[in-house]
Amino acid sequence: MHYDPVKKIIGDFVGTNVIRRKLFYKLLGLMFLREWHVKRTVRALLNRYSNAFFVLDAGSGFGQYSYFIARNYPHAHVHAVDVKEDQINDCREFFRKAGLTNAQFAIEDLTTMSHDAKFDLILSVDVMEHIVADEAVFQNFFHALKNEGALVINTPASGAKESGELFSKEDSFIGEHVRYGYNQDEMREKLVRAGFAVERIAFTYGRYGSIAWKLGIKIPMMIVGIHKILLLVLPFYYVITLPFTLLFMHLDYSVENQQGGGLLVLARKP
Known about the structure:
By secondary structure, the protein is of the alpha/beta class. It has nine helices and seven strands. Helix 4 links the parallel strand 1 and strand 2.
């Protein structure tokens, strides 16, 4: 089973209905550990702004990070881009219905996009593992940032012993990926070549996080992948597993992982 078809099933069900989509965003924020880590980093960066600032959501997907920033930071101006036209159209319609006017959506290819020193923050969550020409994207990010602007990347890590099953080559969840992740040295070297100063590269989805991912995401996705009618089974599944899933997520969020299935990167344009 591949991840993208399951995302399509869920996306079609959520649609642009305001209540369903807001609930969907809350569930994503609760169940996806990467959102916990990413949002903590984003809050630390954005809380210092008291006037208008500009954010590029590079590979916006369902739009949950654009929504988080636009809703919680009224001074933000969010430019969200993705190559998937259906997701961009859904986000545009939902944001219009929700009355959020400080975010705009566009179909753009990160490998060819052109923005000149426009953004204070670029956020790229689970995108780079899908792109062959990753260094071209890093160069475009560098040109798009203002001086001292920040780049936050979340992506799978490669070669992590504790999370080997999570991102193993046999795992069909990553069938859409062009690489199985980055190691810290590779990520640092590519960003430095693009001109960035790397401030932090941290592991996420360590020992505890990988257990949480299997309980909270992998098994449910496998269930839904059998047939979408099995969405009805998930509430009963989560009644049993959710307390354990959240416990392991909190443990991962609270410790400094020495290894893990994900990398959270903070870099700046000098």
